Amino acid sequence: MSLAHGYAAQDAHSPLVPFAFERRSPGPNDIRVEILYSGICHSDLHQSRDDWGGALFPMVPGHEIVGRVAEVGADVKKFKVGDIAGIGCMVDSCRHCDNCKADLEQYCFEGATWTYNAKERGGERLTFGGYSDHIVVDERFAVKISPKLDLKAVAPLLCAGITTYSPLRHWQVGPGQKVGVIGLGGLGHMGVKFAKAMGAHVVMITTTPEKGADAKRLGADEVLVSRDADAMGAHAGSFDFLLNTIPVGHDVNPYAALLKRDATMVLVGALTELEPPLRGVNLMFGRKRISGSAIGGMAETQEMMDFCAEHGIVSDIETIAIQDVNQAYERMLKNDVRYRFVIDMATLERAPA
Ligand SMILES: [Zn+2]
Ligand SMILES: [Zn+2]
């Protein structure tokens, strides 16, 4: 066992505070990673406030983790001490179901083991996430990161990055296609960068015209303001693929109208009911599809990390001290971040705010 230090929510109504806890000693297939940076995902805020139910406290959030390997188990093959490793939303899965065998551990029939707000597989011990000084994880659930990348800006790739990369790959986005990215936040800004790097003609679809200039800086070829009915009409039936990153229930009908015949819109943000309901006719005429996608498997997360190294892709971030994590949550609620907060874990040694 090793003593870890981090920040935890003790219940759904209190701010995060300093917290000490134990990590397991590395087993034969485990690596111990000293955490350098931890991104802040919207789900961290929602889970620590139990907005989705089932929260397990104390809770150390964080599933966008970048660190340096400090110790490796006897059977570890992928990593050596000193390597840079990334850990995302999962730390384990059953490994024998059809989905795990297909390298889609996130869809494990028995349920993947989440990086925090879960119990370790086969035990009662809670998993604790990246807002902490180190983590112990099976090497299957860690990816290798090129040290040439800006490591603090790599952290959000472990959730926001793979969540957008995986559907763009699955639906084979590439040159000659017109691809729309709906919503410009932590997910959307990565969707624009990836779709552009894959060679597509990228249209940023946003309710906020002011975000247009930023979308173009990120690589969008065009900006479509979804509140402009004439502009939406001009783009009707013209998209090969839509990546919908809106994080709340919303009206998908106007977006369905943008799809070409047989084209797909994939939801990666909205977990809850779509309001108002989807009208069947909006899919029937044009044989259109609406699908969903959740993060990505470990093999694909490694593929994404290699793609980012090759194309020099990282997230746009604002670095904070861990003592400021509660203020960062408040700013996220006001969408006051471009586009991801990342905690510099070296600040853990400072006195609590
Ligand atoms: Zn996340
Ligand atoms: Zn499984």
UniProtKB/TrEMBL annotation:
UniProt xrefs under InterPro entries: ADH-like_C, ADH-like_N, ADH_Zn_CS, CAD-like, D-isomer_DH_CS1, ER, GroES-like_sf, NAD(P)-bd_dom_sf
Domain Enoyl reductase (ER): 11-343
Keyword field contains Signal: no
One example GO MF annotation: alcohol dehydrogenase (NADP+) activity
Xref: SMART domains: PKS_ER
Cofactors named for this entry: Zn(2+)
PROSITE patterns: ADH_ZINC, D_2_HYDROXYACID_DH_1
Pfam families xrefs: ADH_N, ADH_zinc_N
Organism listed in the record: Luteimonas gilva
Protein's name according to its UniProt entry: NAD(P)-dependent alcohol dehydrogenase
Keyword Zinc in annotation: yes
Family to which the UniProt record says this protein belongs: Belongs to the zinc-containing alcohol dehydrogenase family.
Lineage top rank: taxon: Bacteria
Annotated keywords: Metal-binding, Oxidoreductase, Zinc
